[in-house]
């Protein structure tokens, strides 16, 4: 980057921040990215956290948007060194009764797995194959995205609306006949904080389900940090710069325009044209901006901002692959542990009541099955999380080990002998995840609740849903803006496009 003040400062080097920086740099802006931590990536990082030689993803680990997102595809991350790996099965959903519905990029393999629900799956997969690019453009563009929506066509819009207006349970029971198939879409929705019985909750799980059948739950060779490295390469090759260990303490405004940031050490850095914040919305509006710069209505909205569920994550070093009872799970990138619709509903009720789930729903990742760089020869990593309350009575110190044991017992139900394979484990309670990445408030992975009342024009607050803020020159480009969670880069790209539009 040339000496002097940059055109744009991006606060936060998570995937959205780096995507915003890449688009601005491609447009000819001089860009400086500031990251509070010692390394970039936010929740998209990889470290040896159990034993030497075992590489674990700290946050995000599987990337259905990685090869399909209209924000990432133009950046050609494979051309920047990123290598994607795929398992034969993308998402397996076993239960103790021996059933297992599985989703793969091979439509016929999925149809065989679903048995009598195979024809229903062929219809869904066929519709998705015909509409995927238009659908992703519509869902990931700046709202209201009328042009992309209209290009879907009236019949496709009607079909999408039927899904969007359904609960996960309603859509599943209307679409599938078997309990095994019915637990897939509601189970995938619990990647966020959307339960099976939530109104208008089906769309989250539906999108993850169909993306598993197209982009798949892809694994970056070498770890999630490889995505961060590829994005950073795209920023730096156009002259952008990254500065780590630079925690922003305040955003400075003059005459109604954001013009600079002040670091924790007191240093002030000016931006000639724009500041893009890859930050939690409450952090931006309540901590980094002086209160007189933020409308009282926005301050009130941020004080009552609804975060998503907390997350309790574990990493294991294993002396062999997880011994799943069902063969599909032994070949799956991701295994979901949720026995039935009623099991998922009971789990959701317990978390919302502030209790630790008795029978935790789990998202379980098996990266080392397809990426041998993750573990020493003959050994494996395992990655898993459950959704939990953000805080519990008495704090996490007294409950960490107990709930970790409960998670291992849950896996043991589906993979007898699992505990005997464990060499080491690492536990991440919600407060640990927030300490790792300040945007994960209370262990919330999603940038706020995915409830329909927090989407579209209400994310994060009306009328500031199009990445602009009450201050000219300041933009929100994090997952707290539309379309929310997922490593798709769309929040950052759309914020960058807003900058370019305003700057002519």
Automatic annotation (TrEMBL):
Domain named Amine oxidase: residues: 17-491
Single GO MF annotation: oxidoreductase activity
Function summary: Probable oxidoreductase that may play a role as regulator of mitochondrial function.
PANTHER family, per database record: DEHYDROGENASE-RELATED, PHYTOENE DEHYDROGENASE
Quaternary structure note: Interacts with COX5B; this interaction may contribute to localize PYROXD2 to the inner face of the inner mitochondrial membrane.
Keywords tagged on the record: Oxidoreductase
Pfam families noted in UniProt: Amino_oxidase
Organism: Sorangium cellulosum (strain So ce56) (Polyangium cellulosum (strain So ce56))
InterPro entries: Amino_oxidase, FAD/NAD-bd_sf
Protein name as catalogued: Pyridine nucleotide-disulfide oxidoreductase domain-containing protein 2
